[in-house]
Amino acid sequence: MTDNELSAADVARYIDFTLLKPEATHADVAALIAEAIELGTYAVCVSPSMLPVEVPLEADLKVAVVCGFPSGKHSSTVKAVEAAEAVKHGADEIDMVIDVGAAREGDFAYIENDIATVRAAAPNPVVLKVIIESAALTDEQIVAVCTAAVRAGADFVKTSTGFHPSGGATEHAVRLMRDTVGSAVGVKASGGVRTIEQARAMIAAGATRLGVSGARALLAGAATTGESGY
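Structure for Deoxyribose-phosphate aldolase, as requested:
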């Protein structure tokens, strides 16, 4: 099966079903979890103030929590405390935001230390994803940030918060990130992935996870191509 032939159920297993709106309530998050289980997504991704959440023991669903979100302009110490608290309250995965300004200044040593500090606060088996805000960086900066993330022990590099005015994921950025980190580190495409066609394209470019806020609509789009449902 090629990436363009992935079924809705296959694509669902790539998805972190995301709810990060400032106005989100605990009831909204409970509804998100119920819908994620129904759709068969890999994980939900929520804000740290929403923890702890209730996930049925029998559900095959991970809980991801953002850290230093959305600006990344928190001190490394604050990010570490935030990550450790999230893990304490049930997070399986941490999606941390780098200081994008440091990347634009070329201070990749700072970025590596920032990531390593969070990694120490949320050690394996917690999955650490590093949000690099790829649309705000040059190709050279993307490569340098991804290299720093690998050195610092990250499990994934992730394109975007979805909140930056520069934009979200692109196939070019995903492909560049995959080429940089190799096969041992994941790549998460996030920001603007709204259709099944876009999802498949990101997977074909090298994404191993997708950040999606409209999972039901995206997966339902497979039905318009004459495929079986999920």
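The CA atoms of residues 133 and 160 lie 4 Å apart.
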